[in-house]
Amino acid sequence: MNNVELMISEHKYILRMLKVVRKANFDILKGEDICYEDFDHMVDFIRTYADAHHHGKEEKFLFKEMLAHLGQIGTNLITHGMLVEHDLGRLYIHDLLEALERVKAGDEESKLDVIANAIGYTHLLTRHIGKEDEVVYTFGAKKLPAEVFEEIDRQAEAFEKDAEKIGTQKKYITLLEELEAKYL
């Protein structure tokens, strides 16, 4: 298994979900009611598939080895770049959920916060994915020793086998397709 190729393919699913999130927020802007169940599904996809599953592999395997083997360049790229953006994405989703709760409770003005946090997240993740696909993964593949990269692939393969047992990929790709059918 080539972990980088798998992560790039996962990015394509994440980017597709970002389009769904954007469209759902455009509907709010046009005055349509918020479908809280759909937002719950979008957030579940983001938290489970994009963050725990995808970012989890990056953080536990690739980024960890880049920090261990690439010196200051690795530290700057990962600690001061990629991990900061992962945390900022988590903050956007946290604030999005709080805003949704306020809207549910009758605070119409908090729709602004729903839109702002959701769109902030989509913009952040789109740029973040571009950096990973075009710079970070390529840099790691070129600069990490071959045996380290092979170990990353082995760890990621074991991680994916565990995820396959609980159906992570299938569940979230199906969820994505259902939301695309509704919003796009």
Based on the coordinates given, report the CATH architecture.
Answer: Up-down Bundle
Q: How many distinct beta strands?
A: 0
- CATH fold type: Four Helix Bundle (Hemerythrin (Met), subunit A)
> Mean pLDDT score, rounded?
97
- For the record, the count of structural domains works out to 1
Helical fraction = over 70%
The gyration radius over C-alpha positions equals 18 Å
Label the structural class. mainly alpha
Q: What is the overall silhouette?
A: globular
CATH class reads Mainly Alpha
Beta fraction of the residues?
under 5%
Q: Write the H/E string, N to C.
A: HHHHHH
Main beta sheet: none
Per CATH, the superfamily is nmb1532 protein domain like
The span between the termini is 32 Å
Model regions low in confidence, pLDDT < 50 over at least 5 residues: none
Continuous helix count: 6
